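User: I've been trying to design a sequence by hand for this structure and keep getting stuck. Would you show me what you'd pick, starting by listing the structure so we're on the same page?

Assistant: Good idea, let's start from the same input. This is the structure you sent:
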């Protein structure tokens, strides 16, 4: 079996996925119609043509506009279920999904509306297909600490549905340490912590995500490679990295996928994983990310199997389910060799 065939059949976890970033152009148009929302576009082609980004902020401007069609609990349900069905077909058997409640509350959508739709879809998927999940609430770093504390207060009422907090949105000039207090409060409430760091920001932001936010995982982390001592520390601590190759390419973090550091990360012994970030905006779900980066940097079957195993090891799922997923990877590999 060739490498792409292996990628298709390997069981895997996805750990870096913004549910609002799975809003496909056709669904955006359908929901706009269903909810009477006016968009700047009339066709799928017009939307696709607008997805030509120079940097993270360029993308975020369209991402926040796009989510204006998500109004009712049903919309969040449909969005989440469409994603889960899609990636189940790609071998994904565990997902850890981000959502951005502040972006919804800011436009008058209740925290519980977004949360209800997403969690009901996650629960239904768990009943109808093999798919376990965790939900991660992200704080928006372009907003202030007070706003983040308000989101945390909401999350504290729904601890049974929210497993971890994260940090996303515009990174430049917004270092992790601005959110030290709210992360400390979240950790004291029992939430695990992750943060986007080193996507556009410097290696120093990865370091303060570790030291000040005390994250359990770093999202992206590409710029950490500018600091060899930091990489050595992350190898020593087996700090997971959730990397997103097509996102990095489309947001111009790299100018060519051959520059992607995933192979360097694996060879250094980092607990690196491959994920899709915002698949509808960046031209590929998780398997398209695996395939594109594997072709570009020359990953072999051993690397791809390692990435699938890393995705399970780096997840927040309990030890029993972790072992079950690792065994499924092993038995799939066994069937092929
Ligand atoms: N929100 C959605 N996608 C994001 C990304 N790639 N970086 C930061 N914030 C985001
Ligand atoms: Zn992201």
């Amino acid at each position: 079996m060739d490498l792409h065939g292996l990628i298709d059949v390997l069981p895997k976890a996805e750990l870096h996925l913004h549910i609002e970033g799975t809003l496909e152009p056709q669904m955006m148009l359908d929901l706009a119609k269903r909810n009477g929302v006016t968009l700047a576009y009339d066709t799928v082609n017009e939307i696709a043509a607008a997805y030509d980004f120079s940097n993270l902020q360029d993308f975020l401007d369209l991402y926040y506009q796009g989510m204006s069609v998500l109004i009712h609990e049903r919309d969040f349900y449909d969005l989440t279920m469409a994603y889960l069905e899609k990636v189940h077909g790609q071998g994904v058997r565990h997902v850890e999904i981000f959502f951005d409640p502040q972006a919804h509350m800011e436009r008058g959508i209740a925290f519980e509306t977004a949360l209800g739709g997403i969690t009901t879809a996650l629960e239904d998927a768990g009943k109808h297909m093999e798919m376990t999940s965790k939900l991660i609430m992200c704080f928006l770093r372009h907003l202030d600490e007070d706003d983040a504390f308000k989101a945390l207060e909401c999350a504290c009422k729904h601890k049974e549905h929210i497993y971890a907090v994260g940090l996303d949105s515009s990174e430049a000039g917004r270092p992790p340490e601005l959110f030290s207090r709210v992360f400390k409060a979240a950790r004291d409430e029992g939430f695990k912590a992750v943060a986007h760091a080193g996507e556009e920001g410097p290696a120093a932001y990865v370091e303060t995500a570790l030291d000040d936010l005390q994250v359990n995982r770093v999202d992206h982390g590409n710029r950490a490679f500018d600091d060899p001592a930091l990489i050595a520390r992350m190898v020593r601590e087996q700090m997971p990295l959730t990397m997103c190759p097509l996102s990095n390419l489309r947001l111009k973090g790299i100018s060519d996928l051959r520059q992607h550091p995933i192979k360097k990360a694996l060879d250094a012994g980092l607990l690196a994983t491959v994920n899709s970030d915002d698949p509808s905006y960046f031209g590929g779900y998780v398997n398209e990310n695996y395939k594109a980066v594997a072709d570009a940097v020359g990953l072999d079957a051993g690397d791809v199997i390692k990435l699938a195993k890393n995705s399970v090891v780096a997840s927040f799922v309990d030890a029993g389910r972790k072992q079950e997923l690792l065994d499924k990877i092993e038995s799939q590999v066994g069937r092929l060799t």
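That's my pick for every position. To get oriented when you compare it with your attempt: Strands lie at 12-18, 92-99, 132-140, 164-168, 192-197, 217-220, 241-243, 272-274. The longest helix spans residues 111-128.
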